[in-house]
């Protein structure tokens, strides 16, 4: 009986602890401050700063002028207009906002225990018509947490099934999905069929030939979908040219595939192992697709095929453990340097939902300690992802005429000890507040 009473009492304490934690979180959000604050527009001049342009030389003591949402001037002889708000950048460094090219930002708020806040996947296996932009929550608390770390732009993509849907490039600013949108339908996400034992089974427990058969079956289904989409597109074109022909029956899934099967927009394939990446390359060559690999653990082993077909890699394994028992402990940290040496176009990404995207600069910094140059590590989270996402004409470097996504920091932006002092998205100065900063301020002076 005493044991039962103790168990009951301990259970009550656990419930009270959970209630207390929820109360604290509720208080932290009760005034609505955790929502995506929009900052303020204006004309800003960051003077006397070290400017890391990324695309060119570092300017040791220069000025960045921000006006009408864009970079209006960069250099040592920039004239500051009357009325501009001046920021003294002495001792500070100015960088372009970082870009994470593979996330679930805005699609997953509480992945464990809050199913209604998760919208990363649709029901079914073929969902080309699903658009991530329509599911993004502009008021996600992850947005504030992420941009405080200097990340201003992300690719948010759906998952689940073979054809998961269409990914969106978004800025981490805006009160609506339209305001956040940079490219609402950038690419089609395909979880490329692979040889794998699902449900926790290993090859030793499941016949390997059966696993191959399952993979081949899924691959044939994918190919059939592409053939159907090609036929649907031809029929639709014929009807548009000649209205006397029978009108095709509308199929929103096949219709959504049209710009991708024609190579007008990229297809984003998730693949890790060399054999799977080689299979993707073969598929891309067969259907003449514009392609990107997300994952890419062993992409450097397939360098020839990737370069031949101009397939870029968005690498998402900087913080992961080696897969094979005989892999070196630093194999995944070295992979970006091997891709760079092999001439593969690549970017570094967290591959995370909102909560951990903030680790992007530290993941890039880690790879710089294992063979990748510091310049390439910085470009891997700025200019390189901008090029892969087709937005390098507006983002990824500090150049006159580009959008003013700017980070002002105390030092090397890839170093954990560096603090972000100012942040601009679309030329708006954004408050550096988040759930983390507010909880810190709330409890930093409590009595020990």
Describe the structure.
- With 448 residues, this protein is α/β, with parallel strands linked by helices.
- The chain folds into two domains: 31-96 and 399-448, Urease, subunit C, domain 1 (Roll), CATH 2.30.40.10; 98-395, Alpha-Beta Barrel (TIM Barrel), CATH 3.20.20.140.
- The chain has helices spanning 2-29, 141-147, 177-180, 208-241, 252-261, 274-287, 303-308, 331-342, 360-368, 374-379, 383-388, 435-443; strands at 44-51, 59-67, 70-75, 85-88, 93-96, 98-103, 151-156, 163-171, 181-191, 267-271, 291-295, 312-315, 346-348, 406-409, 420-425, 428-429.
- A hairpin with a 6-residue loop joins β7 (151-156) and β8.
- α4 (208-241) crosses α5.
- The longest helix has 34 residues, at 208-241.
Strand tally: 16
What string gives the helices and strands in order? HEEEEEEHEEHEHHEHEHEHEHHHEEEH
CATH superfamily of the largest domain: Metal-dependent hydrolases
Stretches where pLDDT is under 50 for at least 5 consecutive residues are: 1-13, 15-33, 199-203
Brief description of this entry?
The protein is an alpha/beta fold. The chain is built from twelve helices and 16 strands. Helix 2 links the parallel strand 6 and strand 7.
Q: What are the salient characteristics of this protein?
A:
448 residues, alpha/beta, Urease, subunit C, domain 1, TIM Barrel, eight-stranded mixed β-sheet, 12 helices, 16 strands, disordered N terminus
Secondary-structure blueprint:
Elements: H1 2-29, E1 44-51, E2 59-67, E3 70-75, E4 85-88, E5 93-96, E6 98-103, H2 141-147, E7 151-156, E8 163-171, H3 177-180, E9 181-191, H4 208-241, H5 252-261, E10 267-271, H6 274-287, E11 291-295, H7 303-308, E12 312-315, H8 331-342, E13 346-348, H9 360-368, H10 374-379, H11 383-388, E14 406-409, E15 420-425, E16 428-429, H12 435-443
Parallel strand pairs: 1-4, 1-5, 6-7, 9-10, 10-11, 11-12, 12-13
Antiparallel strand pairs: 1-2, 2-3, 5-14, 7-8, 8-9, 14-15, 15-16
Helix pairs in contact: 4-5
């Amino acid at each position: 009986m005493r044991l039962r009473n103790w168990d009951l009492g301990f259970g009550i304490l656990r419930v009270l602890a959970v209630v207390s934690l929820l109360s604290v979180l509720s208080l932290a959000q009760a005034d609505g401050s955790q929502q995506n604050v929009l900052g303020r527009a204006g004309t800003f001049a960051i003077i006397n700063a070290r400017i890391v342009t990324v695309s060119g030389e570092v300017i040791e003591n220069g000025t960045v002028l921000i006006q009408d949402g864009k970079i209006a001037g960069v250099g040592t002889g920039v004239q500051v207009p009357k009325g501009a708000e001046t920021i003294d950048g002495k001792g500070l460094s100015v960088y372009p906002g970082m870009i994470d090219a593979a996330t679930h930002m805005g699609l997953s708020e509480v992945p464990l225990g809050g199913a209604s806040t998760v919208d990363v996947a649709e029901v079914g296996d073929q969902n080309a018509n699903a658009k991530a932009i329509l599911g993004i929550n502009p008021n996600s608390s992850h947005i504030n947490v992420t941009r405080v770390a200097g990340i201003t732009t992300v690719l948010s993509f759906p998952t689940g099934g073979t054809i998961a849907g269409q990914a969106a490039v978004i800025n981490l600013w805006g009160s609506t999905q339209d305001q956040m949108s940079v490219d609402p339908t950038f690419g089609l996400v395909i979880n490329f069929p692979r040889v794998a034992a699902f449900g926790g089974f290993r090859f030793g427990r499941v016949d390997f030939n059966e696993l191959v058969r399952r993979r081949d079956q899924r691959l044939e289904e994918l190919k059939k979908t592409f053939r159907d989409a090609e036929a649907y597109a031809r029929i639709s074109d014929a009807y548009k040219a000649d209205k006397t022909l029978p009108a095709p029956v509308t199929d929103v899934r096949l219709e959504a595939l049209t710009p991708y099967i024609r190579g007008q927009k990229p297809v984003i394939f998730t693949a890790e192992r060399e054999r799977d990446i080689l299979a993707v390359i073969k598929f891309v060559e067969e259907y003449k697709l514009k392609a990107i690999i997300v994952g890419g653990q062993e992409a450097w082993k397939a360098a020839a095929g990737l370069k031949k077909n101009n397939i870029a890699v968005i690498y998402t394994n900087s913080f992961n453990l080696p897969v094979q028992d005989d892999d070196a402990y630093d194999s995944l940290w070295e992979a970006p340097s091997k891709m760079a040496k092999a001439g593969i176009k690549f970017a570094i990404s967290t591959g995370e939902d909102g909560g951990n995207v903030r680790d992007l600069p530290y993941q890039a910094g880690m790879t710089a300690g294992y063979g990748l140059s510091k310049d390439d590590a910085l470009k891997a989270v700025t200019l390189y992802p901008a090029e892969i996402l087709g937005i390098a004409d507006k983002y990824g470097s500090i150049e006159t005429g580009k959008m003013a996504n700017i980070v002002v920091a105390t030092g090397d932006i890839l170093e954990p000890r560096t603090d972000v002092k100012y942040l601009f998205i679309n030329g708006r100065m954004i408050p550096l507040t988040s759930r983390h900063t507010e909880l810190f301020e709330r409890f930093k002076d409590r009595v020990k």
